Amino acid sequence: MTNVVGPGSTIGILGAGQLGRMLAVSARQMGYRIAVFGGDRDSPAGQVSDLAWPGAFDDEDKLLEFARACDVVTYEFENIPSHAAAAIDQHAPLCPGVNLLQTAQNRFAEKTALSSIGLRTAEFRMVRSSEELASARDDFGGAVVLKANTDGYDGKGQWSITPTDDAESAWSEASLNEGIVEERIDFDFELSIVAGRYADGTAVFYDPLLNDHANHILDVSVSAAPQVTEAVTNEAVEMARAVLEHFDVVGVLCIELFLTHDGHLVVNEIAPRPHNSGHLTIEAYHCSQFELQLRTICGLPSVPLLRRSPSAAMANLLGQHIPDAWRAESLTPLESPNTSLHLYGKPESRLNRKMGHITATGADPTAVEQTVRLARETLLQP
Ligand SMILES: Nc1ncnc2c1ncn2[C@@H]1O[C@H](COP(=O)(O)OP(=O)(O)O)[C@@H](O)[C@H]1O
Ligand SMILES: [Mg+2]
């Protein structure tokens, strides 16, 4: 029988950013108490939580003190040292699982696990010198991506290497002890699929999202985009199911995918938590990815993921999209009942910093995508 972490219990969130904030909002609606680790009261999640524990993620004592105050712990920040994650799990279940967390922290381990369960990935290899980098590039067809094996996000710790680049200077510029070299995938589109799994093994899937990146950062996501055919959806669901089952996940995860010219999917990476591309589920579905995270980790009843709207789109608001001062006119597009503005309460706006997002819902995926792009531009219009 599944243990239920009932309303009134304390949910611990490792990481105090926007993902924690949106989970906290959802959990508060359902009467839970929220403790966040890694930010003060003024952090995006700390602002909407009961308890905020500033602290470093390598401070095991502090993490344990935090875990003792929680009934269940989840994370929006993945780089929690292995031994600390295992220790937390002894005090309060760490969802969606220590094994998944540790694997997702390490690109080599992650890609090895994905291929071991039969999922297609880019060819990859660990390298520790410029000679190894050059030889991987030769073996993988000339154009490759070099990535830091740990700690990368939003394209940070990542270098594109062409057949003519000098491997020695590329390696020294990257300044890595170990890196992973990946074949450069020539994809048609980038997709993601957000999925959840309950303790009894019930798995649920949102429709895959079509994702557009700018400068390696997610820019716009569209749900029910015409490029995502039924065959692509089925393939994405089966891939996500394989990952959920392999890691015996209880919680929510996302897998990032490339759709290649042959119409098949290649897995890029796993995010062991709700994902930026899934923010539109707040408006587009009856159960958002954050409510799903809460339901799965707390042992609440499973619900089917029913749509509220045939399609939806989301545009990220980075520092450069935010006006210096808010004016009533900049908010005109948001007067539509089908358009929502989310801001994460970050006091300081910086280039490429995720400050918020805009979601639009409606019948036509092309129209909703135009709506969010236009609404974002209007924020900055004089
Ligand atoms: N092997 C690859 N081939 C082609 N593009 C890639 C490859 N790996 C990464 N990219 C591009 O870089 C982006 C960020 O890479 P990703 O591995 O997802 O790292 P991050 O942790 O920064 O999100 C991807 O969304 C994709 O646009
Ligand atoms: Mg990524």
Question: How would you describe what is shown here?
Answer:
With 382 residues, the protein is of the alpha+beta class. It folds into three domains: 10-95, 3-Layer(aba) Sandwich (Rossmann fold), CATH 3.40.50.20; 123-183, ATP-grasp fold, A domain (Dna Ligase, domain 1, 2-Layer Sandwich); 187-380, D-amino Acid Aminotransferase, Chain A, domain 1 (2-Layer Sandwich). 30% of the residues lie in helices and 27% in strands. It contains eleven helices and 18 strands. The chain has helices at residues 18-29, 60-68, 82-91, 98-104, 107-116, 130-139, 167-174, 230-246, 281-284, 289-298, 365-380, and strands at 10-14, 33-37, 51-53, 72-75, 94-95, 124-127, 144-148, 158-161, 179-183, 187-197, 203-205, 209-214, 217-223, 251-260, 265-271, 311-318, 339-343, 354-362. Strands 10, 11, 12, 13, 14, 15, 16, 17 and 18 form a nine-stranded antiparallel sheet that branches. A five-stranded parallel sheet has the order 3-2-1-4-5, with helices on both faces. Strand 14 and strand 15 form a beta hairpin. The termini are far apart. The model has no long low-confidence stretch (mean pLDDT 94). Residues 122, 145, 152-155, 158, 182, 184-185, 190, 213, 216, 256, 268-269 line the site of adenosine-5'-diphosphate (ADP).
